[in-house]
Amino acid sequence: MSEDPDVVSRRIARESLDRDDPTGWFENLYAAAAEGSAVVPWDRGTAHQLLIEWVEESAPDGAGKTALIVGAGTGWDAELIADRGYDTTAFDISPTAIETAVRNHPDSKVHYRVADLLAPPPDWPHAFDLVVEIYTVQALPIALQPEAVKHVGEFVAPGGTLLVIAAARPDDQPDDAIEGPPWPLTRATIQSFAGADLRLIQLIQSPSPVDATVLRWRAEYLRD
User: Fold this and answer.
1) In what residue span(s) does the Methyltransferase domain sit (predicted)?
2) What DSSP string describes 164-209?
3) Chain segment 24-41, per-residue pLDDT in tens
4) Is the pLDDT confidence value at 137 over 60?
5) CA 91, CA 94: separation in Å to the nearest integer?
6) In angstroms, what CA-CA distances link 179 with 1, 114, 174?
7) Distance between terminal CA atoms of the chain?
């Protein structure tokens, strides 16, 4: 019987965290998956269902606009956004994830690149009309989440939209009670993506179709 992918990914993450390398486990996991010795739990072989629903509801027209996909993984979310006409950039800290995305989507229009959310390229702030962040901030230890949230918000151009999808946790659940990854986001953390000119315009909490006890956020923000 094969080991639970979540257990494997947590073990790989714990080894990285024990070396004081909180982001190195992404490459270790994707590399192990490429070798067939692990499975990336969030790699669904399709775009995230909540992103699909948002696209269906909002019907965004990306013609003449730019988009950034945070934590691209193997590219499914980026491909959906590119299909809406956006000039789409998608990044991941894992070179193997990016190599896999390029291999999975050989005719892609997406600009895939390796980059670090905690130290992003200097020309990215306020550069994208649509920014999509799915499950990346929650994959970082809680102490690093405020910095990650700050960078995600900074990517949004004036008049642009930010979409955040994340697992939810109760505000009264203490940080030390969470054995991540992931470290699901509280309502306060979701609200912290907003700033003086980046407004939260929609916040939906819904149960996972796989496990009704697992709640998820879908939050949309607009930069004035």
Assistant:
1) 68-160
2) EEEEB--TTS-GGG--SSS-PBPHHHHHTT--SSEEEEEEEEEE-S
3) 778 888 888 888 877 777
4) yes
5) 9
6) 24, 28, 11
7) 53
